Structures
1.
Amino acid sequence: MKKTLLLLLVVLMVLAPLVAQGSKEDGSAAKELVVYASVDEANAVKILDAFTKDSGIKTSFVQLSSGPALTRIQAESGRPQADVWLGAPSDNHVTAKVDGLTVPYKGAAFEALGAEFKDPDGYWRGFYMNPLCFGVNTTSLAKRGAAVPKSWADLLKPEYKGLIQVPTPQASGTATTMIYSLIEIMGEDEAFTYMAKLNANVQTYTSSGTGPSKGVNVGDAAIGIQFSPAFFQMKANGQPVEIVFPTEGFGFEFPAASILKGAKNYEAAKIFMDWLVSKRGQDVLKATGTYFYPVIADAEIDPVMPAFSTLDVVGVDLAYYSSRKTELVERWVSQVLSAKK
Amino acid sequence: MNKSFVQRKWHGLIKLSKDPLLLSVIVVLTLALILFIIYPLLKVCIVSFQVDGRFSVKNFTSVMTYSNGYYMKALWNSLWMGAATAVIGTFIAYIFAFSLTRANIRGQKFFNLIATIPIISPPFIGALAVVMLFGRNGFVSSTILGMDNANAYGPKGLLFAQILTFFPVAYITLRGVLESISPTLEDAAMDLGGSRFTIFRKVTLPLSIPGIASSVLVLFVESLADFGNPLVLAGAQFPILSVQAYLEITGMGNFARGSALAFILLVPSVSAYMLQKYWVSKKQYVTVTGKPTQSSNTMVSNRARWALFALCCLIASLIILVYASIVWGAFAKSWGNSALLTLDNFRYVFRVGFESVLDTMVIAGLSTPIAGVLGMVIAFLVVRKKFFGRRFMEFSSMLSFAVPGTVVGIGYILAFNHSPFYLTGTLAILMFNFIFRYLPVGVQGGVAVLSQIDPSIEEAAIDLGAGSTTTFRKVTLPLMIPAFFSALIYSFVRSMTAISAAIFLVSARWKLMTVQIMSQVESGRIGSAAAFSLILVAIILVAMAAIKLFLRLKYHTNSSILTR
């Protein structure tokens, strides 16, 4: 008798996790949306909270950088644990489309969107833009007695040694955008030679694309290279930050969103995709303080941000570059990281 | 000889088949161990030795030649970082343990408490503190020393953080070793006219050598497996194997190369573990005396006592500084810019991460007791029963001690991502991971207790007229319970603070606090990472206090791994 109980206990325990699995899934009824967010966590919260307020649809999300997100979506192919992939540069969404991991959806707001911001078949849509820039902590830089850099070339000066934080392309889409646009500006070999020289001044390569701004924020680094929103926000807070758009030109991102194939909350996902590029959804970018540039002309922007049309951005052929990503990242590792300090 | 072996096994089987229930328990447990411990590791090996479905070492040659030997550099970095952490960490721990057991310095209880605190810390705390204290705008480097070019990133910062994180493990081991060496031996040597230093050199040190070797090896394994500290501090310029395996899989989506890296990581850690378990731990000395080992202990001169006291103060104040900086970071309005205090960081955590706090408690709360009970059952079977596969059961249930979390995580996504075992994204995969990862603690504790309970104690109770139920309830159970709860506390702490395997397994529905902390750290939100860490530590402390109170009220004991 005792032993029967023991056996039962052991079997139950080994199987308990499987039993426990069902309980939480049941809660996921109709009006819910699960998101893989490759947008910075704080901004993902802002956008999704605004959507919940507007639509009454409850949202939950996991924050994942673009690389990890794509890997996970590929791993879960056909049985995604989320409904929508929000954020990550659009080349990732091109890959997801080609691999058959997403489904097309258009809707009225999609038709109104500029052709450069969307997939012609409706698989993905861009929903904001950000230029690359240098964010400079002027207090930190003044301590070193160095001037604010104006160009990519300036960054090579010895006075910036150990002051610069840059994301690593091994994990961050921001970093690959930087590599692609430098290749457009300088040519491929020159771009790598440049980055190898820059390595001497780099303090550390962060695994997240928004890592450098946080280093600049606390004065751990004096210069961070990444997309602009975090720096605009610091400036709006009145912090000693200067935003530099390098004179040679600079890349930009227009992250996209897709509905995942096999989404459990497909209806909610469609409502979300419509809302995202509508006037309402685009105004939310300013209202909630994301400091993202909207993709539709009549949406508002914050006064600290110069109009996007005045910026000297360099566009890149994402389909071409994303097909060469592995090769370019490997070249970066071998040529840039092993460069002499 | 061979025949008798077969015969013995055969008889064992016959005997077992007469007890089908016991047999079923053994079969179920063995299958579970194979599925959740062996199979994922096998998957890592298969994937790393396979190209296009055929056996090949191409993944390894490609790892070796990748980018001018970048990954070979990662292997080398991991190995010497592990060795340096092990040696320096053990050295510091030995000084600490020696001072507390031999030098009779003031404030022993306080020092003991301080030295064990890092054990309950979430990952990243060491790394965060290094940046906050010794970075460019760090409290020590910039504010106190006025340096303007301090750099917390790279090997030095990482070494510091790892020593800080792992030296308590060595301290607990070495303290136990030094306590088991009877001071009367040293007294005897002194009576025979040896000088203090000679006694240390010829008596104390030789007796503690096996303990030191064991602690060096354990620290080496822990350092190799560490993920949180190198992720923040190593960066791309100082590659570390566990982080590179993670980036290769999650960043580049290259499972074959990631598995190859994981396999390479597995080799030194399993070797060091084997060395520790099957060689060093067999050489432990125990000095047995009949009387209580009280000693007037004059082994340490007054001057040396003060020197040791000063050293302990220095180490303790470093640890306090680290935790003070975390508390400060959690309440500072904008760390590094303004000294104003605020609750904003906690508000942010509760807004963004409250769900993960609940999830973590559910996952750890559910898997810990299961791991504890299964551990006791396995220990019972291994110690008191004889059956075919007994050694396999013991070996496989202890294996998780040796396998770095990164390797386990990769193994789990490779093994449980398709039918028949489709588990990714579920609560189940996280629970299986935690149960089987922290099983060894229960098994180890259970084996230790059961082999210490001499059946004669139970026989004595029966001779005095107690029934077998009463004997079990009043004698055996109270003896086992404290060890069981010690194991429970330990695996709860480990489940709450786990990151390296769990990072591969979390999902939108099931989040872990440690992974949330990692996301804060990665994007440099230091304040909320610190706030998250404080909440995590608070939960652990409350849980430990609850378990202790329960033990005191119910069984009138105090035993816990953290206070022993």
Note: The domain at 7-46+351-563 of chain B is CATH 1.10.3720.10 (MetI-like fold).
2.
Amino acid sequence: MERPTSNATLPPRRSRGPELPKTSTGIRGLDEITRGGLPQGRPTLVCGGPGSGKTLLALTFLVNGAIQFDEPGVLMTFEENDQEIASDVASLGFDLPELVAAHKLAVDYVRVERSEIEETGEYDLEGLFVRLDHAIRSVGAKRVVLDTIESLFAGLKNDSILRSELRRLFRWLKEQGVTAVITGERGDGLLTRQGLEEYVSDAVILLDHRVHDQVSTRRLRVVKYRGSYHGTNEYPFLISADGISVLPVSSMALQHEAPLERVSSGIARLDEMLSGKGFYRGSTILVSGTAGTGKTSLAAHFLDAACRRGERCLCFLFEESPQQLLRNMRSIGIDLEPWVGAGLLRFHADRPSRYGLETHLVTMYETVAAFKPTVTVIDPVTNLMTVGTYADVQAMLTRMIDHLKTENITAMLTSLMPGQIDIERTETAISSLMDTWMVLANDPVDGRHRRGLYVLKSRGMAHSNELREFVLTDQGLTMRDAVSDPRGTPDVPNTLWEGRDQHAVA
Amino acid sequence: MQLLEDGVPLVPPAGQTYRLRLYVAGQTPKSVLAFRNLKQICEEHLHGHYEIEIIDLLQNPQLAQGDQILAIPTLVRRLPEPIKKIIGDLSNTERVLVGLDLRMGQ
């Protein structure tokens, strides 16, 4: 009889050939990174340190299979018994006993206690094979999880028998045609303590759990995936009440659409400055300025206008609570409350220090996915920068902005600058990602503060380069006619003019 | 069998019947050897005080889980309690006797 493993001994397919069949994990993001899931009918090694989420990932794979894809599964656990496992994952909303009762899942707890076992002479692990085979047949399993088979090394003395039996086991799993996930504990200088990667070599996924500045971040990397393309970066992943999700880095290439449609800023005279029509839909707008220059007010106008058009708006707040913002905006005549009531506007307020950047990123990503806004405001994006290093922040924002662009979401980010002097220089971390950049300034002139606004850049449109004065009234933000800068001529580079008919390119 | 020659005292079975289970998976050479070794040891040390039950997991795979069988062959001493397990072809009589509590381990 021809073994299904024969494929494994063939030379790897050339890139022209069709990709290997894959089994969807149902884990958002992971299927994207692996271009469809785990190699079908083959074992995948998932390794990581203690608490890195190996077991949860493996179980999610099983449960999703049983529930979403009509693929029953077998869980063979070597460390925790059925009840422990069931209660571990109950918090994710998985009801293992119910799946077992419905014959969609079989659980076998393998307990090996070295002190209880005397070894004499030759043996093999046929008992393990029999149990696994029995479990697979009992539910017609298509998916198998072995968690964590390395425990056997602690229970049995004869390493060489164990190793040859494990090799036989993984070969046997392939012959059964089941898609298997084998978990392994991260070892010193090795992916797993016992070097399981030597036996399970079709696909290897590495999980990592780091704590930096008291903030923990989980990451996932596909170390190896034989016969398939895969993303090679580290991707943040999150374990939340909704289960596991992995955040794919932005689209791999710059291929966002560049719509020609324009959206109003909500301030007619500001639209005028933006070649008379406002922002491009799907573009990213940075509003920077020192404290009290009116950044949030500008954003509120933008949100109000979008809601008036019936668009869904999502507003991330990293400084104020939604109530504070609503109250403050009411004082300048912008009442956003009805939009909240109508379900068009949603706030998501978080303390930046609450999690690491990656978690913020995942949370924002998920909130966007759940609410499906067409307009998003992040106020202020600079507060996030306190959470990570310069490079981390840039990487995170690149991903976020990339994602928003892909979804054609118009995004306005406000940026709080510590001082006026170097506004244009200090924001290099993010300004290159922006399509439109507006600067708000606050200058003491003739014994009072005058607020000014200018458009530093706006890709793909002939924008004004004047400094305009504006006032915050109880009717909102009102622009005045062009003023000359009290400091002299504003140094607005004209080189960003990219032609009236060009559209925004990311 | 010159097992008793080193003078280590045999722990007496105290009149109790030893209930032993030998788990195998088909008639493999290892299983056959294990059974032959077991039979011999029992005849020599537990004559008349033992029962051996052979369980072939290929016919009764569901029985593997209960006794936590992993290795084949596995000998399980079900009585007297506590349960003891000896894995392998039982070719080292000394270790089998230790495993069955018939001889003090060193």
Note: Confidence is low (pLDDT under 50) at residues 1-9 of chain B.
